[in-house]
Design a protein that fits this description.
- 19% of the residues lie in helices and 27% in strands.
- With 255 residues, the protein is an alpha+beta fold.
- Strands 8-12-11-10-9 form a five-stranded antiparallel β-sheet. Strands 3-6-5 form a three-stranded antiparallel β-sheet.
- It starts with 8 loop residues before the first helix and ends in an 8-residue tail after the last helix.
Length: 255
């Protein structure tokens, strides 16, 4: 139409400008429409919807729309005190020069669920914090568990069991010990005069036992039950018991 002089060149330029403005408006409208379409960054299960249909929301809202949980693999976070962490590094000959090698140095772990049963899949250590928490003195770990049956849910609690293979270890039942000021004690029986002597022992917990690192020797006899009812130096009349009978026994709580 410009070539035929039906429309002036100025009108053409005005039309082009209006077209560009319309395109810009369309992009803005499309963007606003897209904001109304919520897309999850991961596949998973949707939790509670915190807003009703038609509610006005904005980026400054503290409450999220919902939570999407991906549960085919589940992360279990737990902390280990710095002493145990260093002992574990030595025990498993962990390669501390590489973060990946450090994580792979640890064996598979077991999840003890809140009902006391073991989860049927083993987990792997996939992350270890590079720093010790100054407030708690602990190192944070993350173990990853496969969850094909979706038994594990987000927010569940439990305990992580790390295997500790110790050969020819000296062990005592935990029920035969007592604590004072952060230390573990037992009463050692003296065959010569039938008295008992309080002994402090350095131990590693391995429920329902303690692995004794120092403080007792092979062949020593200890007071297996009733240690909290006697004092250092008293004479007793011992009755021999087997380890199983002590570990599997129960205290009478109600009469």
């Amino acid at each position: 139409m410009v070539e035929k002089e039906i429309v002036s060149p100025k009108q053409l330029e005005t039309a082009k400008a209006q077209l560009e403005t319309a395109k810009s408006d369309l992009k803005s409208i499309t963007a606003n429409v897209n904001y109304a379409t919520i897309k999850s960054p991961v596949d998973g299960y949707v939790g509670t919807i915190n807003y009703r249909e038609g509610a006005l929301i904005n980026p400054n809202d503290i409450t999220p729309l919902t939570r999407v949980v991906k549960t085919d693999k589940v992360f279990a976070y737990f902390s280990v005190n710095e002493k145990d962490f260093l002992n574990m590094v030595n025990q498993f000959n962990a390669d501390t020069k590489s973060k990946t090698n450090l994580e792979s140095s640890f064996p598979e772990v077991t999840l003890i669920m809140s009902n006391g049963k073991e989860y049927n899949k083993k987990g792997k250590i996939t992350s270890i914090s590079s720093q010790v928490n100054r407030e708690t003195g602990t190192v944070r770990f993350r173990a990853t568990f496969d969850n094909p049956e979706f038994i594990l849910k987000d927010g569940l609690t439990g305990r992580i069991k790390i295997p500790n293979d110790t050969k020819n270890a000296l062990v005592v039942p935990r029920v035969s010990t007592y604590s004072r000021q952060g230390k573990e004690f037992v009463f050692k029986f003296n065959r010569s005069d039938s008295t008992v002597t309080e002994k402090v022992i350095d131990v590693v917990r391995a429920d329902p036992y303690y692995i004794v690192k120092s403080g007792l020797s092979k062949g020593d006899k200890i007071v297996a039950r009733g240690a909290n009812k006697i004092n250092d130096g008293v004479k007793i009349k011992p009755i021999s018991s087997t380890m199983d009978s002590i570990v599997n026994s129960f205290d009478k709580v109600f009469k």
